[in-house]
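Hi V.,

Quick status before I head out on leave. The structure for the redesign project is tokenized and pasted below; the design run finished overnight.
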């Protein structure tokens, strides 16, 4: 079974930067769309960013656009989310996800595999 591990979470002051990473096992990494989602207490899991496996197209939620950058390294089976200009509203558990999602990159239920999540806390 595909195994995914997130890392890089932590505590950062508002306005700061943080990078979270996800390492994925398996030989089909390059074919997956990889997504980042986040979930705050009492909130639904929400889409943050995604990158497709075929051409590397990227997509972002409006609230993170221009602040977050998703990237992938297929040779290392990793996907990264570089977060800048962080806000307290960004505080959440961040999850990486993988799957053959078609055009529905923003829907959590379309992803097949999930990491355990990493906590990102942004202080005011």
């Amino acid at each position: 079974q595909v195994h995914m591990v997130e890392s890089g979470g932590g505590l950062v002051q508002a306005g700061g930067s943080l990078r979270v990473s996800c390492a994925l096992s398996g030989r089909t990494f390059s074919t997956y769309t990889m997504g980042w989602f986040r979930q705050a207490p009492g909130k639904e899991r929400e889409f943050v960013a995604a990158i497709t496996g075929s051409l590397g197209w990227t997509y972002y939620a409006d609230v993170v656009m221009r602040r977050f950058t998703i990237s992938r390294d297929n040779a290392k089976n990793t996907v990264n989310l570089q977060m800048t200009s962080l806000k307290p509203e960004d505080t959440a558990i961040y999850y990486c996800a993988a799957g053959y999602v078609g055009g529905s990159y923003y829907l959590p239920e379309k992803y097949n595999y999930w990491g355990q999540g990493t906590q990102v806390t942004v202080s005011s």
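Above is the designed sequence. The longest strand covers residues 92-99.

G. will cover questions while I'm gone.

Best,
W.
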